[in-house]
Amino acid sequence: MTYRIAVLPGDGIGVEVVPQALRVLEKIGQKYGFSFEFTEALIGGAAIDATGHPLPAETLALCQNSDAVFLGAIGGPKWDSLPVHLRPEGAALLPLRKHLGLYANIRPCRTFSALIDASTLKREVIEGTELLVMRELTGGLYFGEKKRETMENGERAIDTLVYTTEEVERIVRLAFEAARKRRGEVCSVDKANVLESSRLWRETTNRIAADYPDVTLTHMYVDNCAMQLVRYPKQFDVIVTENMFGDILTDQASMLSGSLGMLPSASIGGQVALYEPAHGSAPDIAGQKKANPLATILSAAMMLEYSFNQVEAAREIEKAVDTVLNKGYRTGDIMEAEKTLVNTEEMTDRVLEELA
Length: 356
Ligand SMILES: NC(=O)C1=CN([C@@H]2O[C@H](COP(=O)(O)OP(=O)(O)OC[C@H]3O[C@@H](n4cnc5c(N)ncnc54)[C@H](O)[C@@H]3O)[C@@H](O)[C@H]2O)C=CC1
Ligand SMILES: CC(C)CC(=O)C(=O)O
Ligand SMILES: [Mg+2]
Description:
The protein has helices at 14-32, 45-51, 57-64, 88-99, 123-126, 165-180, 196-209, 222-231, 243-257, 294-306, 311-326, 344-355, and strands spanning 2-10, 35-40, 68-73, 104-110, 130-136, 146-151, 154-159, 185-190, 216-221, 238-241, 266-268, 273-275, 329-330, 340-341. It is an alpha/beta fold. The chain has 2 domains: 1-110 and 259-356, 3-Layer(aba) Sandwich (Isopropylmalate Dehydrogenase), CATH 3.40.718.10; 120-257, Isopropylmalate Dehydrogenase, CATH 3.40.718.10. The strands form 3 sheets. It has a 10-stranded mixed sheet with strand order 2-1-3-12-11-4-5-10-8-9, sandwiched between helices. Helix 6 crosses helix 7 (196-209), helix 10 runs antiparallel to helix 11 and helix 11 packs across helix 12. The longest helix is centred in the first third of the chain and has 19 residues, at 14-32. 1,4-dihydronicotinamide adenine dinucleotide binds at residues 13, 73-76, 89, 93, 260-261, 276, 279-285, 291-292, 295, 333. 1,4-dihydronicotinamide adenine dinucleotide (NAI) binds at residues 13, 73-76, 89, 93, 260-261, 276, 279-285, 291-292, 295, 333. Substrate binds at residues 97, 107, 135, 223. Residues 4-351 form the Isopropylmalate dehydrogenase-like domain. Its cofactor is Mg(2+); Mn(2+). It is found in: Cytoplasm.
């Protein structure tokens, strides 16, 4: 079996971590008897520089005609002065997610036992955390109408938060389905005390819950959730939430794993799924071989599981990551005293050794 993967390294550390995950995929494929046809394409700032557009038509066509899409990260200071609708994030990443129908972004967040003591949070708070955030990905504040208007005394800018019943229903159902395979608990996070879209979200979620009597549903306001995530994260099984809330809460939750460089993601819902680390292009460390490749390598494991049902191969990659951490290898973001500092490629070398 050969899987055809559209590979979009993007910008900044995207171009450093993606090749590392491809090495891991090649290796695990050899072991389990499958292979990959990787086709690289431009996206983001790199695509603006080369073609004038952050999401060239050929890139989109390649994604639509592949078995899965594997993305690094996009954006960076070079393109920061562009208006939102022209910059890499707004004109490439969001449209790509929309075109591919990827309405669900799954971000599993667990503690790695080797990293607990490196955390800024107390061991008793984070140990045993195993939560999953189901973030709505093609609606909400990032996709509503935007406007800039000239006023007498300056300008005003408008972003709109819109959700339809159907958009809420499909993501909430996925959350309930995921909870069924886990602890059976869904926490729906909203701001229903002030946002009308959240009131619709909550009403819809309550209605859908009737189809899942075996799953416990609770509701929480997003501000409280941000606090509860660092107070007592073990209370959460599946969190389902609006696009921007999920974006923010998962960067925060990544610290329960040890670093943003440890958090993988899968975006599903359409014909072709997309896998990418939760982090961005990290301009502050780009080009210095410091990037932690593990979030991207763990995203590759999610691809094997979700798109290709290669569950055993996925588990083996996750186990290799655990072992490498247990042996004391660390990139800078997770470094602590008496551990071995390695660069992006060396960390991957260690993972490959465990897969040998
Ligand atoms: N999916 C995507 O393509 C995303 C793109 N971005 C874009 O990335 C650019 C930078 O955004 P930031 O706010 O700085 O967020 P970021 O996620 O790129 O970085 C935040 C912090 O985490 C660190 N970090 C992130 N990934 C790491 C890794 N693998 N290893 C070690 N350290 C890591 C960075 O060095 C930085 O200090 C912006 O242009 C932003 O729009 C941001 C988030 C997601
Ligand atoms: C363009 C942003 C929405 C990207 C991001 O921060 C994310 O998807 O996590
Ligand atoms: Mg984000």
